[in-house]
Amino acid sequence: RDVVKRAKAEMAGCQSISFGDLEACAETFDVICNTVPAEVVTASVLKKIRKDALILDLASKPGGIDWETAQKLGRRVVWALSLPGKTAPVTAGEIIAKTILHILEERRTADA
Q: Cα separation of 87 and 16, whole Å?
């Protein structure tokens, strides 16, 4: 959703797309790395993902992948929910704090 963050991801060699384009592009992915703690990799997306693709879910609980459909379709999914908070809690906390402050600033600007 954040254009600056998407640009940074692309500068790092990652492909970044909007959620609305996820299903249309799904069959081209080798790896999907999800950090959104809401279901964004839905059954319709999972059906289009290649069988040899890897899906990595790093989001906080409940994760962002339709677990039941992924299992039924035999998709390769690494469930590493909340991994950043478990392995680097201070850094993860700092990032969350910065994100919250950024959101509050955006809302304050929008209300002005």
A: 25
Two tokens, residue 34: 């999800």
* Cα 86 off chain centre by: 17
- State how far the Cα of 24 lies from the Cα of 48, in Å rounded to an integer: 8
Residues 6+ apart with CB under 8 A from 37: 59, 60, 61, 62, 63, 64
Burial class (CB in 10 A: 0-12, 13-18, 19+), 69: middle
Predicted local distance difference test score (pLDDT) of residue 107: 72
75 within 8 A of 55, measured Cβ to Cβ: yes
pLDDT digits (tens, 9 = 90+) for 12-56: 888 788 888 999 999 998 888 888 888 999 999 999 999 999 898
Matching residue, tokens 């500068």: 11
CB 92 within 8 A of CB 62: no
The string over 72-94, giving b where at least 16 C-beta atoms fall within 10 Å of a residue's C-beta and e elsewhere, is eeebebeeebbbbbeeeeeebee
